[in-house]
Amino acid sequence: MSDIPLNNIHAQRDVIGDEIDEAIARVIAHGRYIMGPEVAEFEAAMAAQVGDDNVQAIACANGTDALVLAYHALGLQPGDAVICPSFTFVATAEAVAALGGVPVFADVEDGGYNLSAASVRRAAKMATARGMTVRGICAVDLFGLPASYGSLQEVASELGCWLVADAAQSFGASVDGQRVGSLASVTTTSFFPAKPLGCYGDGGMVFTTDGAIADRLRSLRIHGKGSDKYDNVEVGYNSRLDTLQAAVLLPKLRQLEEEVAARQRIAERYSAGLADAVTAPLVPAGYRSAWAQYTIVTEVRDEVQSALTAAGIGSAIYYPKPLHQQTGYSHFDSADSELDRTEWLTPRVLSLPMFPYLEDSEIDRVVETVRSVVDAST
Ligand SMILES: *Cc1c(COP(=O)(O)O)cnc(C)c1O
User: Residue 111, class by beta-carbon neighbours within 10 Å (0-12 exposed, 13-18 middle, 19+ buried)?
Assistant: First the structure.
């Protein structure tokens, strides 16, 4: 039997590989590798995809830079606190610390993987008591599901701070028909190859409804440029999206809706086969996930992973160590002495194969293998 990988970014080439290769060839022919016409074309296509006329899309070098640029444009100052989940990829907090800010870790919601508004309130109280200014909140749409922006925006308004959406895993998702990119006033995403919308290298983007922030982002990504690139109005970055990557992303973006729908069907088939054996991912009413990952919770996680590996099936643990326990980050404060839900999830989560071209027979094999362990253990 053939192996089933966790992700197969090559499978899409059977569908749009020729289109992508032609797009790459066009860039090589015109030779405008930096800020070539495909970059603006891709930014316009992404803003249109979000579907909110007030949203501007600013491309940059990667999803981590997107966060750094966003925090910088929002005015993050050294010593300022930004509350973020500990149950996330390191970049969320790294970008805060890179600017001299102080990440403060909060827990995730019961029954979910995303930032808890109640925990954010506790984190803010703690940070304020320690003399820090809470400048912002960064929510993460973990595994592709948008965070609870309604309740998080309420907390942000109470605290008088900004709310950034780290949507590195969720471009293509929505809440009540409102798409990722417009769920917060500033949203970042990543085009790392394994993300739902990935390129052939590194890439990232910031979305914002704030015209002044959009202008500042366009300056910051090109060395803090003013009227031209040899006029430098502030200290910035070299963080542009390569023209080649924009060209690769244009046909991939046209395929995205269909691919998110395919991921949705795969997730439903997984849940139908697994929901009575493990904790399947919860998608609240009105939410549409981009299904970057399909992540289960089980008491026999390590045994399930061993069985999958033995059966030639890929899986992954996102994330093996939460940020508040990482060597480089454990000196930062957390909302509570322990982040209960985060620490409970960490030894129990397992992400199963998920990509739009997974076949039903493959999904069924994954389900059978997971069940062979879980059913025997109960
Ligand atoms: C991938 C990811 C990032 C960083 O994106 P890069 O393009 O790899 O820099 C940031 N946040 C989250 C939640 C991610 O999954």
Answer: exposed
- The residue whose CA is least distant from atom 1 of ligand 1 is 168
- Rounded to 5°, the CA angle 108-113-114 comes to 60
Residues 264-314: pLDDT tens digits? Answer: 999 999 999 999 999 999 999 999 999 999 999 999 999 999 999 999 999
Determine the pLDDT at residue 2.
Answer: 61
**φ, ψ (nearest 5 deg) of residue 347:** -80, 0
Structure tokens at 84: 């973020």
Residue pair 187/139 in contact by the 8 Å Cβ criterion: no
Distance between Cα 63 and ligand 1 center (Å):
5
Q: Is 196 in the pocket of ligand 1 (CB under 6 A)?
A: no
Cβ contacts of residue 299 below 8 Å, gap of 6+? 348, 377
For residue 69, the SS3 value is helix
Which ligand 1 atom sits nearest the alpha carbon of residue 204? Answer: 7
* Residue carrying the six token digits 């979000």: 50
Give backbone dihedrals phi and psi of 274, rounded to 5 degrees, phi first. -120, -15
- Which tens digit of pLDDT belongs to each residue from 314-333? 999 999 999 999 999 999 99
Q: Is 232 helix (H, G, I), strand (E, B) or coil?
A: strand
User: pLDDT (tens digit, 9 = 90+) per residue, 25-74?
Assistant: 999 999 999 999 999 999 999 999 999 999 999 999 999 999 999 999 99
Q: Closest Cα to residue 273, out of 346, 341, 374?
A: 374
The rounded Cα 79 to chain-centroid distance in angstroms is 25
Q: What is the token pair recorded at 311? A: 């059966």
Q: Which two tokens stand for residue 62?
A: 């990667």
Strands 102-106 and 134-140: what pairing? unpaired
- 192 alpha-carbon distance from chain centroid: 10
319 close to ligand 1 (CB < 6 Angstrom) = no
User: Which pTM value belongs to this model?
Assistant: 0.97
- Say how far apart CA 58 and CA 55 lie, in whole Å: 10
* Sequence-ordered list of residues with C-beta below 8 angstroms from that of 105, at least 6 positions apart, any chain: 83, 84, 85, 86, 93, 123, 322, 323, 324, 329, 332, 333, 334, 335, 339
Nearest CA-CA partner of 72 in 211, 217, 222, 186:
217
